[in-house]
Amino acid sequence: MTTLLEVNNLKKHFPIKGGGIIPRKVGAVKAVDGVSFSVQKGETLGLVGESGCGKSTTGRAILNLINPSEGEVFYKGEDISKLKGEKLRKLRQNIQIIFQDPYASLNPRMTVEQIIEEPMKAFNTPKKERKEKVDYLLNRVGLSSYHKHRYPHQFSGGQRQRIGIARALTVNPDLIICDEPVSALDVSIQAQVVNLMEDLQEEFNLTYIFIAHDLSVVHHISDRVAVMYLGEIVEVGEVDELYSNPKHPYTQALLSAIPEANPHKKKERIMLEGDLPSPSIPPEGCKFHTRCPFAEEQCRVKHPELKSVAAGDHQAACHLVKEVVEAPV
Ligand code: SF4
Ligand code: MG
User: Fold this and answer.
1) How many CB atoms lie within 10 A of CB 308?
2) Atom of ligand 1 nearest to the CA of 293
3) Which ligand is nearest to the CA of 287?
4) Does any ligand 1 atom lie closer than 6 A to the CB of residue 320?
5) What is the CA radius of gyration of the chain?
6) What pLDDT does 201 receive?
7) Which site among 21, 119, 179, 327 is 20 to 30 Å from 312 CA-CA?
8) Which of 199, 223, 202, 225 is CA-nearest to residue 212?
9) Is the CB of 319 within 6 Å of ligand 1?
10) pTM > 0.90
């Protein structure tokens, strides 16, 4: 396995400005607060957590759509977190993003052909090649060249997401950051789009970071999953291991909310007390302590770091979970 992307202590703090004639910084929303993970070539890393936990901001900070406040992002070994201008533009050929609301990201005054062609124009692809690629990709995502002279409003949500996917593929990216790509779609359509994304991953050798709050969708598509809470990763591991053997109390609570398909199997739902605290004044110590059913005195003062908690590089950040040190092979 080769590491394609490595994110190291990534932070994005949005300053909060106070009133007055000269606004001054009075605090910061710590949307992403020290996130580290790596993505292997060809895999899908699921990024889950409640809305407001920093998943989307993490995705955007990787691509430099918003500048990270701190930390590094290595793509194929090169730090891309501070790239600007032409170098950043070039990078965007390798890393693409697809959004939750394809409607908002498709220009309503452009035809589908113009929309899909646009990234190729920016990279100076010759016209003939552009036209051929539009036809090929439209067919490949389940639409047809017959659709290319239409406008975004003439399509359904699922079709618009297919157009967004086609556009992302035009420049042959390695990595696609998928920011809740199916959350706005009907359940039946979600499955079709997820299946399409899996087929395309194979055909085009793609690596995905798949951001979502729906744990069932993430289970289906991911190889590994990282769980975020208030701007931090609290647990990460291989998908089946993490879903069957969650170690962090927050992951346990999230997973307990997935409806059980087998009616004979009883599942106890862990209800979390209280609301998600504000990311501008996160709790001290373990950020989850205000809602954790197992919180102890040390949790209020000491911040837990990610550590190995089971075989296969399964990590969690909780004081009560025992560290497991794997024997060297
Ligand atoms: Fe709960 Fe403490 Fe573990 Fe945080 S460190 S998840 S508060 S038990
Ligand atoms: Mg989001």
Assistant:
1) 17
2) 1
3) 1
4) yes
5) 21
6) 98
7) 179
8) 225
9) yes
10) yes
